[in-house]
Description:
Shape: elongated
Strand order of the largest sheet: 2-1-6-5
Number of strands: 6
Bound molecules: zinc ion
Number of domains: 2
CATH architecture of the largest domain: Roll
Distance between the termini: 23 Å
Amino acid sequence: MELRWDERGLIVVVAQDHLTGEVRMVAWMNREALAATRECGFATFFSRSRGKLWQKGETSRNRLKVHGIAADCDGDTLLLSVEPEGPSCHTGRASCFFQSPEGEPRDPAPTLLALQAVIAARASSSAEKSYTRALLDGGAPQIGEKLREEAAELADAIAEESAERVAAESADVLFHLLVGLEARQIPFREVLRELARRAGTSGHAEKAARKDGGAGPQQV
Ligand SMILES: [Zn+2]
């Protein structure tokens, strides 16, 4: 793959959470920044305003550990698969993409992460009595009971019901699973980390990415 650096010697770079798929930020690299990223294993960009390299998080410590580098089909954009060590936006938000072009608030998180955020908001809101809030108030016994019930319905659906029913029951199981994780204050991201570990796409992939200068995002 021949990279297509622009007339300033730069290429646009998208940083994506390697576990959740969340897009964290966009920045620029020159050849030197790409070499530095491969060398140190942390995202290093080229600042157009300051005219020099900067390692993301060099002052805030919110670095982006690079697990893989992919180039797009025509070689003019790079995708970094990263493990963020903190918020990626200078505003303190996880992702730079938190608003619409008109400035309306937007949650850029992928579906399950966004749902986890909604559940967390319900948990802390005293305003309205929601189904989620009631489940959380019931604690582990009630959440566990609901999960068993939903899992049984899913098992039946998989055995003998339509694809739509299987999808709907799967959604119920995932929703109640997220409520259970919220009750235990465990981020869904940790579940994804465990799946990635089992699929061998976390630690090993990271080493491989550094050794060969950037394997693409790993396939499960
Ligand atoms: Zn930002």
